[in-house]
Amino acid sequence: QVQLVESGGGLVQPGGSLRLSCAASGIIFNFYAMGWYRQAPGKQRDLVAAITNGGITNYADSVKGRFTISRDNAKNTVSLQMNNLKPEDTAVYYCKAKRILPPYEEYWGQGTQVTVSS
Questions:
Q1: How far is residue 48's CA from residue 12's CA, in Å, rounded to a whole number?
Q2: Cα 103 from chain centroid?
Q3: Shortest CA distance to 55 belongs to which of 41, 65, 69, 44?
Q4: DSSP character for 82?
Q5: CA 53 to chain CA mean position, Å
Q6: Residues 6+ apart with CB under 8 A from 30
Q7: For residues 66 and 117, what is the distance between their CA atoms, to the nearest angstrom?
Q8: Burial class (CB in 10 A: 0-12, 13-18, 19+), 71
Q9: Confidence (pLDDT) at 75
Q10: Rounded to 5 degrees, what are φ and ψ at 87?
Q11: Which of 27, 31, 32, 61 gives 20 to 30 Å between its CA and that of 75?
């Protein structure tokens, strides 16, 4: 049974920080690239940040310089450190795992709500 469980979401003021974590089980973690996506009401789900099994990262333009993705292969976790949060960051954030070898299987977490508001 494959599980991706997100944690760390909540309510934060503009300019504040939040750290999301995703714990993976049921997979060989080192064979998967990991990513964080987000979806706001009425909008499509978009990539926020991704990290390869070798530690190479990429970010959406809207979060560059503010968010940092990292992974801990010993703990089978991926994290998203979010700093200088803005109201437009409000969304449900999802963790995704994608196998780096065929059949390139994908798994999704259930999501965690992040709300940035005064």
A1: 18
A2: 22
A3: 69
A4: E
A5: 15
A6: 53, 73
A7: 17
A8: buried
A9: 97
A10: -55, -35
A11: 61
Contacts of 117 (CB under 8 A, 6+ apart): 11, 13, 14, 87, 90
pLDDT in tens, 68-92: 999 999 999 999 999 999 999 999 9
Strand-strand pairing, 112-116 and 91-99: antiparallel
Ranges assigned E (strand) in the chain:
3-7, 10-12, 18-25, 32-39, 46-51, 57-59, 67-72, 77-82, 91-99, 106-108, 112-116
Confidence of residue 62 (pLDDT cuts 50, 70, 90): very high
For residue 76, what are its two tokens? 């089978």
Structure tokens that stand for 27 in this block: 């997979």
